[in-house]
Amino acid sequence: MEKYTFLTLIAFGVLALSAIFWVWLCLGIRKRGLRRSLAIGAIQISIVTALYALIRGAYGEAFLNLFGPLPAAYFMIANASKFTHFVSHFAIAGLACFIVSSLLSILVKATRPWFFGIATIVALLGMIVAAESVSKTAMCEAATQAQLGDFQRNTFYWSLANAPREFQFQIHALAIVDDKAFGWSYRKLDWYEIPHAAQINVWVSGETASCQ
Fold first, then answer.
1. To 5 degrees, how large is the angle CA 58–CA 133–CA 200?
2. Which residue, 195, 203, 157, is CA-closest to 54?
3. What is the pTM of this model?
4. DSSP 8-state symbol, 178
5. What digits encode the pLDDT tens for the residues 109-138?
6. Tell me: the pLDDT tens digits for 42-60?
7. Are 153 and 184 in contact (CB under 8 A)?
8. Sign of dihedral through CA atoms 150, 127, 48, 110?
9. Which of 98, 101, 163, 200 has the fewest CB atoms within 10 Å, measured from its CB?
């Protein structure tokens, strides 16, 4: 027990020192030269990771990301890599938003130093909008192929803000055929059969989607 307590204290100490260093780095915005450039970069990373956490509905995490965004950025990328098949369908929309907003930001002198943060936020929001359309299309194509008929679905934004959660009973989408229930998986981009014993516990509060 003492060993784990010691390791926990070390971990908290490292996190505290990292947060202090990051705050010191961001305060360099008032300086000149390299220190200011590093501060601008640090602030942009903090804002982007905090915004992503806010979109996910993790408000406490958003606050912490302001002071330690690098681990958050790593986990953002690692989490997105689990859904590469889904993300690949609208990644071009995010890339286009990033390029266009980068060029526009660079053209304006006041926003030029902040182009990365501006472009990343625009790209993130653009991908979320595109993902909603891709999500519904993918569900319909898979439902038609499996002959599931109409189904109930939550929006992609709902899924982004609420899933995954421990002990979660509301799912991305739900199709019921006879006495069988099917849920939607963004990782596989396909429907999966829900065990009979668990069917009573799952539900969807979103719209009824008709693919005809």
1. 60
2. 157
3. 0.81
4. T
5. 899 999 999 999 999 999 999 999 999 999
6. 889 989 999 998 988 888 8
7. yes
8. negative
9. 200
